[in-house]
Design brief:
Distance between the termini: 53 Å
Radius of gyration: 31 Å
Number of helices: 21
Shape: globular
Helix content: 40-55%
Low-confidence stretches: 81-89
Mean pLDDT: 86
Number of strands: 22
Strand content: 15-25%
Structural class: alpha+beta
Strand order of the largest sheet: 5-8-10-9-11-12
Largest sheet: 6 strands, mixed
Length: about 600
């Protein structure tokens, strides 16, 4: 640009906007601000007298719900998929209208005469109106006809049956009303359309290029629930959003799924959204999609959320990350993960990961760990061991504290039941720090519940807290319980189905510093999920004498199980000495070097 004349520079910027810039937002005000910023970018270096006529951005920056292309089951236009339809009812008139629309939108960009602009805008809107109204009217008439036939049937029923029958068709009658409302407000700038027809509104992009070269977005920090129930039902009907399912419908997962659909082959995506993308089990599907179906180029993670001066968005107490990925599918590739301590990216650490390493490390959840390169290499080494689910299984407690509430009582004559808050490392608390001790009416419960888990109380089990704070020193808190004790669903428990593996050996590994470090490194939420526990790497030493490690665990359980343990400093110190022995034994079992142990201990401290 520095070598160009002012006029040529202006034309270059204008051409760039014409060829490169498209945008959608559900907020009409955001669209007007975006237009203003683009115009300012054009004129900022010019004197007022030198400013050329500004381009029309009405069909470059548009308002609508970018997640929904359909409305009440109506698909308006599907681009090339629709053009290739070889059915008997191919709509030739519709295709002629589409070609005409494309030409008129292109012409509109450079029109500056107000009257000519109004005329061209009317021509464009008339074509869009015809396309949208034709589909809406067709569906509305179908619904109206169906409603009339259903209302005629109502006369044959009594009042109670009529009411019940009518309720079943209530949503369809509501759809008719929604369609009428959209038809009324089709061009009201104050009303956002409840859909956005990407392949129609940006027809030049999809017909000429097959999608966008670059897709950039900052999805809303929103969860689809409560008042958005209707929209949730619509979203769930789209096969496109299956990859965003899992847990609550977080907006960023939906936007990632939609954005990937908008990329052309080898197109690039760049978005900023919640940091939970890296590790949450609820984000596993969308994370695996990008690791498997795209080539992640780079991720910048900003975990800070408490210090308002360091977090990325001061007004949102949210840790975020920036993902850059390309729409191509190499089987093996590496990418950089940078973990920044501040929003200015002044200090942090970088790690290089491969997609295949992540699938090998955590096949179920495929977490992306925020750790150092040395720590990741240790994680990979641990992952070469067999997984816990090869010889044991982790379950959620069999007593649901909500659904099974009718079987719970405070009468001590009933069967004992433990809750998560009672489970500590090496012992069960007799007094609850939160909640209350309850017992189970065993006879009534077993009469009504005959599933497999209902008999697990007959076995001794390893139990653990099902929820622990992400910042707690010990995320894994486990001990043993005898037969006859039931578990609430705030407790997870492990049953061993390989008789050659002892409970005490397994408990030693699970309560070790090494496995606690492993879990904290890969987990980003407060739940200790059974699938995560099932995936723990466990060295099976069937041919090695494990008597020493089991003896140490036995000593710990004997001391921690004494009635005065919580009030005895000497007994607690004795347990810590035994724990140190176990930690050294566990490091040896996994074959870690002195340097690797030092890396883990430094990370823990």
């Amino acid at each position: 640009p520095s070598k160009l004349s002012k006029k040529s520079e202006y034309q270059l910027k204008k051409d760039t906007i014409h060829n490169c810039v498209y945008g959608v937002d559900i907020d009409p005000g955001a669209i007007e601000i975006a237009k203003l910023r683009l115009w300012l970018a054009l004129v900022v270096d010019y004197e007022i007298r030198d400013i050329e006529p500004l381009p029309n951005l009405d069909y470059r920056l548009m308002c609508g719900n970018s997640l929904l292309e359909e409305f009440e089951g109506i698909r308006f236009y599907n681009g090339d998929d629709e053009k290739q339809d070889l059915g008997l009812f191919k709509d030739t008139k519709k295709q002629e209208k589409i070609a005409e629309l494309k030409q008129k939108v292109e012409e509109y960009f450079d029109i500056h005469d107000d009257e000519e602009k109004r005329n061209k805008r009317k021509e464009i809107n008339d074509i869009k109106d015809w396309l949208i109204k034709t589909a809406l009217e067709k569906r509305r008439k179908e619904l109206a006809s169906h409603r009339k036939s259903e209302e005629a049937k109502l006369n044959m029923f009594n009042e109670e049956s009529r009411k019940k029958y009518f309720e079943n068709w209530g949503t369809k009658f509501l759809a008719e009303a929604k369609i009428n409302e959209v038809l009324r407000n089709l061009h009201d700038p104050r009303k956002a359309k409840p859909f956005f027809i990407w392949k129609l509104e940006f027809i030049d992009v999809f017909e000429d290029k097959g999608g966008f070269d670059v897709v950039i977005a900052n999805p809303p920090y929103d969860v689809y629930q409560g008042h958005r129930r209707g929209e949730i039902d619509e979203i769930r009907q789209y096969p496109l959003y299956e990859k965003a399912s899992g847990g609550k419908l977080n907006a960023y997962k939906l936007f990632l799924a939609r954005s990937a659909d908008l990329q052309k082959q080898n197109g690039v995506l760049c978005e900023i959204f919640q940091n939970s993308f890296l590790g949450d089990s609820s984000s596993s599907k969308i994370r695996q999609y990008f690791l498997r179906e795209q080539k992640i180029i780079k991720i910048d993670s900003f975990p800070e959320r408490d210090d308002v001066n360091l977090r990325v968005f001061e007004s949102a107490k949210m840790s975020v990350c920036i993902l850059i990925s390309q729409n191509k599918k190499p089987p093996l590739y590496d990418f950089a993960l940078s973990i920044w301590r501040d929003k200015y990216m002044l200090s942090g650490q970088k790690i290089v990961l491969t997609n295949q390493d992540l699938f090998a490390l955590d096949p179920k959840n495929v977490s992306i760990p925020m750790t150092s390169q040395q720590e990741f290499d240790i994680l990979k080494k641990l992952a070469t061991n067999p997984r816990l689910n090869q010889f044991a299984s982790c379950y959620e407690g069999e007593i649901n504290l909500t659904f099974h509430k009718k079987y719970l009582t405070k009468d001590k004559r009933n069967a004992p039941m433990i809750k998560g808050a009672a489970v500590q490392k090496w012992f069960i608390k007799e007094k609850m720090s939160q909640g209350e001790i309850e017992y189970l009416d065993k006879k009534r419960y077993l009469k009504d519940n005959a599933g497999k888990k209902s008999r697990h109380h007959e076995l001794g089990r390893i139990v653990m807290q099902g929820i622990t704070g992400v910042d707690e020193k010990n995320r894994l808190k486990m001990t043993l319980i005898e037969e006859g004790i039931f578990c609430g669903n705030s407790v997870n428990y492990i049953l061993i189905h390989d008789g050659k593996i002892s409970q005490k050996y397994l408990l030693a590994l699970l309560n070790s510093r090494l496995l606690n470090w492993y879990f904290k490194t890969l987990s980003t939420n407060s739940n200790v999920n059974g699938c995560e526990v099932d995936n723990f790497p466990m060295p099976i030493q069937k041919n090695q004498d494990l008597q020493s490690i089991e003896e140490v665990v036995g000593s710990i359980l004997k001391v921690s199980g004494s009635s005065d343990y919580l009030n005895s400093i000497s007994k607690q110190e004795k347990v810590r000495e035994h724990e140190h022995e176990i930690n050294q034994m566990v490091y040896k079992l996994y074959g870690l070097t002195k340097e690797e142990i030092e890396t883990i201990e430094k990370s823990i401290s």
